[in-house]
Each structure stands twice: as structure tokens, then as C-alpha cells.
Design brief:
The complex is a heterodimer of chains A (303) and B (299). Chain A is built from 13 helices and two strands; from the N terminus they run H-H-H-H-E-E-H-H-H-H-H-H-H-H-H. With 303 residues, chain A is an all-alpha fold. Chain A is globular. Chain B has one domain: ABC transporter involved in vitamin B12 uptake, BtuC. In chain B, a hairpin with a 2-residue loop joins strand 2 and strand 3 (135-138). The chains are: A mainly alpha (303), B mainly alpha (299). Chain A binds chain B through residues 30, 77-78, 80-81, 83-85, 87-89, 91-93, 95-96, 99-100, 102-103, 174, 218-220, 223, 226-227, 230-231, 260-261, 263-264, 266-268, 270-271, 274-275, 278-279, and chain B through 29, 33-35, 82-83, 86-88, 90-98, 100-102, 104-105, 107-109, 111-112, 220, 224, 227-228, 230-231, 235, 262, 265-266, 268-270, 272-273, 276-277, 280, 296, 299.
């Protein structure tokens, strides 16, 4: 049972990570820095709970603020470049963060035991949930409550004017600028929001996995983060969720019986999907098809 | 001062390897305006194949070079057909993501070929140190530098003196106009990938020979160094790629001397960030950015 719960937790955390890239993708920015923000969130939340003994919710809150502020700072220089240059710049930022945590040492003795991040050895013993007697069900519910809140917020924002503004910038910056949208403000705001969500995902991840290692935050994670919304399509938030379930549930876990060779098939499958649906699984075509099917069902039932 | 100059010499020598990697990225980017993230890993797989031949069959270094380059070209073409030729023209991001996913495939194959972490990599000569006045240079660095110069000359000849080279430049200048002139851009793309893979295979061999070992991390390393060097010089500019590679080499060598391996790695990223803030277009590409800005303001 724990295996499935872990899988569900992973899906939840990766959905948050994917959503953080989704917000940026709405404005047409492709950021490979999400893994870096994820790492910052993970380390800062764990430092708060382990070294300062904070409770989990304030720790997550402050970690989100820290990550958001960092994303805000990164946003300005990174926004001077666009397109693929932004990809490379953010890629470099993510690697920079990983290197920083690779050398980050802050050992504190608590009750005769040394705790805290230990450079290359990673940051182990993040035992907040175990110490406070949380069951794995409660952990899973905490993660998914956050997932539902974030998804609802983004979905709601998409229905309001702010969603339209984000999409307008993503569609055509020049046109958005001519109708009086401050493109820079929108982009930095999206970057900050993405950072906050990635920080949330990271802090949940740290406490669920209890052990942080800089190897978890490589460019692989960054690519996953942007692959989810791209694979799911940016038409709505559920695409990202479906893509996470497709990749983490079906491809990563479902192909485990293939042993070592699963990565080969995994790569091939994603390339096939990218070839057939370059705009994502839920592009406008698929959405129309789904709507038609639903309408047919309904009309048949009515008649 | 002597230390600093010595570092600069080392940096220029090693930076020539970065320049070759950056040229690979720049050429492909120029031709199709898309990013091939699995350039580094395809070199890594080529080098692994070379090492595999070296360990199992023959100690002939020339054969190792040949296998490395040939496998790199084969993998490069595989990546091109799968991630760039098959994916739709306007789906830039889809190409990049799939080229990254292919990366995982390549790493998996390399790990199956040689499952250990580190392997020795052959070099042409045994390493010696040559003294020039107060400075000294390692012989494999000199050979790397000289071979890079030869390769650059050959690349220049190819691009500026041959018809296929003209086609490559035409497509990278204006894809639509070159199609009207009857240039098959798909063939040009294929050609560019093959040329770039040859360059990459040789660059990989030279760098790994200087290091005398190959690890699975080489793919990531090569992609990052190549990308950073390209960005420093300016995206899509050939002289920029060379300048960027040399600059990166010099800065890294000095950072290593004064700060150690961690500072060296961090300095590369800091340099990139500073360049983006000061000159987003890179050393040479500022003109391109300025033109875009002018066009933007005119509208």
C-alpha cells in the first residue's frame, strides 16, 4: 500500500512542479530553472523544520516566500533574453543552484545528534512527519490538498482577466504591449508565481522523501517540469495532471517490468507523442473531440 | 602575474575544446533555430564506443578516433531524424524536449556498453610538459589547440568555399528565401548535423584525451560548456562561438587557480549571468539583438 501512496505523493508533487512551469508557459516563457526553485524550496523548508524546529505549515509558507523572492530576482536579468536564450540562461541558473547545494554545509547539534545539510553527503533526517506522528495517509492528504488548492487557484485565475493577460503576452508580446499590457511586469509576476509554486512543491518533497541529495535536482528534473505542461498542453491545468500521471504513473512506474531498458522505450514514447501532438495531448483539436463525444452522449441520453 | 599569464595560456588551450563544442551548437542553432540538447550525450556515446573498442579489441588510437567520430555522427543523425526532421517546423519546444528525452536513451545505451563509472581514454602521445621561458604547456593541450585551429580552417573552407557550405549559410540566413531558391532545407539540416557531429566527435576525443578518462557525466558537461560558450559569444555566430569558448576557458582556468574546482564551476555560470545582464546578445551577437530591438520599436 505504501508503494501506491508514494506514487500518489510523487504524482502530486510533480503536478505542482509542472504547474509552476505551466504558469510561465502561459506567458510563453520556457524556464529550466524550476528544478532550481524546487531545490531552494526543499532546502529552506527543511532547514526551517529541522534546525529551527518550526512547524510544517509556517516553514512551507516561508520557503514559498523565499523561493518567490529568488524567482523575482532571477526574473529581471533572465527576462532580457527570450526564447531559447532564456532556456539556456535558466538552465545555467538551475545548475548553479545545484552546485550551491552540493557545497552547502550547515551542521547543528541537536539532542546529541548532528543534523542539517552536509554538502556532498546531502541533507538527511528530515523527520518532521515521523516525529510528529503523521500517518502516510495524512501526508498524502496534505500534499493533495495543496495540489487541489493550487490547481483551483490557477484555474480560477485563468477565468478572470489575469489569465487573459498572461495568455495575451504568451500569444504575442508586441500585440499585448500595444493594448497597454506591461509585458515586463506580467512576465516577472509569472516568474515569481512559478517560483512560489515550485518552492511549495520542493518543501513538500523534502518532507515526504526525508532525504535531500543534490543529484535529485539536475537538469532531468527541470526537463520533467517543462515536459508536463508541454505534453499536457497549456489549454487548461488538467492537461498537466494527466501528463504527470502519464509519465510518472504509466511510463516510469508502469514500464518498471522492463528493467534497465525502460529508459529506451520511455524516450521513444515521449518522442512519438511529441511528433504526433507537438502542441500537447490536450490541444484544441483533442478538446473539441472530447466535447463532441460528451455532447453526443448527452443528446443520446436526452432523446 | 606569471601565474595569471600561465592560467591564461592553459585557458586558451583548453578553451579551444569549448570553442569546438560551441561551434557545434551554433551551427545547428543557426540552421534551424532549434536547440539540440543531446549534442553532448551523443559525443559521450561516441567516446564510449571508442573506449569500448580500445578496451576490447585494439590499442590503435587512430581506430579509436575513427570509431568515436563515426558513432557520434551516427547518433547525431539518429537524433536529427527523430527529434528535428520528424517534429513539425514550428514546434521548437517539442524538439528540445524530445532531444532531451533522447539524451536519457543515449545515457542508458552507454551504461549498458560500459557499466562502470570511469574508464581510461587513450591519447595520441604520452603527456609531457614543454617549457617556454617561465611558462609551461602540456603537450596534449598544444595538440588540442593546433588541431582545433586546423578544424576551424577546414570548417571555414567548407562554409565559405563550397556549394553545400553556401546552402548551409543560406538556410541559416533566411530559410524561406533559400527554399524559393530551390535549396532542400531538410538535406541541409542533415548535412549540418553530420558536419557538427564530426566536429563534436573530434572535440570529444581531444578533450577526453587531455583528461585521459571518460565518465557518464561527460554528456551533461559537454552540453553545458558548449551552451555557455555559445551564449557568451552570441547565439548563431561562428566567430562568437570561438571567442566565447576561449573566454570561458581563460576565466575557468583562473577561477580554478585562485579558488579551486567549486569556484571554477560556479564562475562559468556567473560569467554567463553577467554577460546576459550587460550584453544579452553575447560578445558578437549584440548587433543581431540591436537589429531586433530596432525592428521592434519601429512597429
Amino acid at each position: 500500500m505504501d508503494y501506491y501512496l508514494n506514487l500518489i505523493n510523487t504524482i502530486g508533487i510533480h503536478t505542482l512542479l509542472g504547474l509552476s512551469a505551466y504558469v510561465l508557459l502561459l506567458t510563453g516563457q520556457l524556464s529550466m530553472a524550476q528544478a532550481g526553485f524546487f531545490a531552494v524550496g526543499a532546502y529552506s523548508a527543511s532547514v526551517l523544520t529541522v534546525i529551527f524546529g518550526w512547524s510544517i505549515l509556517p516553514a512551507i509558507g516561508l520557503a514559498m516566500l523565499i523561493t518567490g523572492f529568488l524567482a523575482f530576482l532571477v526574473g529581471f536579468p533572465a527576462l532580457r533574453v527570450r526564447g531559447l536564450m532564456l532556456v539556456v540562461a535558466t538552465l545555467a541558473f538551475g545548475e548553479f543552484v545545484r552546485l550551491f547545494f552540493h557545497n552547502f554545509r550547515w551542521r547543528v547539534t541537536q539532542d546529541g545528534v548532528e543534523v542539517g545539510p552536509d554538502g556532498t553527503m546531502g541533507f538527511s533526517e528530515i523527520r518532521y512527519f515521523a516525529e510528529h506522528g503523521w500517518t502516510s495517509w495524512e501526508v498524502a492528504s496534505l500534499i493533495w490538498i495543496f495540489v487541489i488548492i493550487v490547481m483551483a487557484l490557477i484555474w480560477w485565475a485563468d477565468q478572470t482577466r489575469s489569465g487573459a493577460v498572461l495568455r495575451a503576452v504568451g500569444e504575442d508580446e508586441l500585440a499585448a504591449g500595444t493594448v497597454g499590457i506591461d509585458v515586463t511586469v506580467v512576465k516577472v509576476a509569472a516568474m515569481t508565481a512559478g517560483g512560489v509554486i515550485a518552492g511549495l512543491a520542493g518543501s513538500l518533497y523534502a518532507h515526504q522523501i526525508t532525504m535531500l541529495d543534490h543529484h535529485a535536482f539536475t537538469v532531468l528534473l527541470a526537463t520533467f517540469a517543462i515536459a508536463y505542461p508541454i505534453l499536457g498542453g497549456v489549454s487548461n491545468v488538467f492537461g498537466t495532471l494527466v501528463a504527470v500521471i502519464f509519465i510518472q504513473g504509466l511510463l516510469v512506474e508502469g514500464l518498471r517490468f522492463l528493467g534497465d531498458w525502460r529508459m529506451l522505450l520511455f524516450g521513444a514514447l515521449i518522442v512519438v507523442v511529441m511528433n504526433l501532438k507537438p502542441r500537447g495531448l490536450f490541444d484544441s483539436q483533442t478538446l473539441r473531440w472530447i466535447k463532441n463525444v460528451l455532447r453526443l452522449r448527452l443528446s443520446r441520453r436526452l432523446s | 602575474m606569471t601565474d595569471f599569464l600561465q592560467n591564461c595560456i592553459d585557458g586558451v588551450m583548453f578553451g579551444s575544446g569549448y570553442a569546438l563544442l560551441a561551434l557545434g551548437f551554433t551551427l545547428v542553432f543557426g540552421v534551424m533555430k532549434r536547440l539540440n540538447l543531446s549534442f553532448g550525450p551523443s559525443i559521450m556515446l561516441g567516446a564510449y564506443a571508442g573506449t569500448w573498442v580500445y578496451l576490447n579489441f585494439s590499442q590503435n588510437v587512430l581506430l579509436v578516433v575513427l570509431v568515436t567520430v563515426m558513432i557520434t555522427v551516427a547518433v547525431g543523425i539518429y537524433v536529427e531524424r527523430l527529434c528535428f526532421w520528424a517534429v513539425r517546423r514550428d514546434a521548437t519546444i517539442a524538439s528540445m524536449v524530445s532531444s532531451f528525452v533522447i539524451w536519457m536513451q543515449l545515457e542508458e545505451v552507454a551504461m549498458h556498453l560500459l557499466p562502470e563509472r570511469t574508464y581510461p581514454f587513450p591519447a595520441f602521445f604520452t603527456s609531457t610538459v614543454i617549457d617556454i621561458g617561465p611558462f609551461f604547456v602540456r603537450s596534449e593541450h598544444i595538440s588540442m589547440f593546433l588541431l582545433t585551429l586546423v578544424l576551424l580552417a577546414l570548417l571555414h573552407l567548407f562554409l565559405f568555399r563550397t556549394r553545400p557550405g553556401l546552402a548551409v549559410r543560406a538556410v541559416s540566413d533566411n530559410p524561406l528565401a533559400s527554399r524559393y531558391m530551390g535549396i532542400n532545407s531538410s538535406n541541409v539540416l542533415f548535412l549540418a548535423f553530420a558536419v557538427v557531429s564530426v566536429l563534436g566527435g573530434l572535440a570529444g576525443f581531444l578533450i577526453l584525451s587531455a583528461d585521459s578518462q571518460v565518465t557518464p557525466f561527460f554528456g551533461l558537461w559537454a552540453t553545458f560548456k558548449g551552451l555557455i560558450a555559445m551564449m557568451l559569444g552570441g547565439m548563431g555566430s561562428l566567430p562568437g562561438a570561438i571567442l566565447g569558448g576561449l573566454l570561458l576557458g581563460v576565466v575557468e582556468a583562473n577561477a580554478f587557480w585562485y579558488g579551486g574546482p567549486v569556484v571554477r564551476d560556479i564562475s562559468a555560470y556567473l560569467l554567463l549571468f553577467m554577460m546576459l545582464i550587460v550584453r544579452p546578445g553575447g560578445l558578437v551577437g549584440q548587433r543581431i539583438v540591436a537589429q531586433q530591438q530596432a525592428a521592434y520599436e519601429r512597429v
